[in-house]
Amino acid sequence: MAAAVPPRPRPAPRRVAAAKAAPDAALQRLVRRLQTRGRTIATAESCTGGGLARALTDPPGASHWFLAGWVVYSNDAKQRDLGVKAATLARYGAVSEPTVHEMATQALRRSGADLAVAISGIAGPGGAVPGKPLGMVWFGFAARDGRGARVGTVVKRFRGDRAAVREAAVRFAIRRLYSMA
Description:
The chain is α/β, with parallel strands linked by helices. The chain has seven helices and five strands; from the N terminus they run H-H-E-H-E-H-H-H-E-E-E-H. The protein is about 40% helix and about 20% strand.
């Protein structure tokens, strides 16, 4: 009679990276603030390809704070869907302060949200031009203010590959939205 073969040990279950498994703490804080204050958000994204909208709609109950999102990757889409002026794009390009200013303003106006964010940048690996290096991302932030709106812009330069630049842009937008909410 042959000796019994011991059972083969099962491999330990793989763990998903902590950043992916648990909701981001900054996102949780933003959601709590939006819920507490009854505020809503709209997004207008280019280089992040809807990544911010996805993050904002991942938590349950997102319909309470997220009203609308546009992914306007091409200049044609920026013009058609958000009303960015052709002259703005021709003079300054898609990755520019005037473009994200118009994107944020139009996202706020068209959605009826309390807050809007616009993101346009060069995530790579190609696309860099003189004065607009890889990792350069422009943000436009708009907030209702009485009868009008306040709009601010900021440019950041993120390091890393395409995925890292896009992820850093989403995280930055979430942190900035928290300060506005």
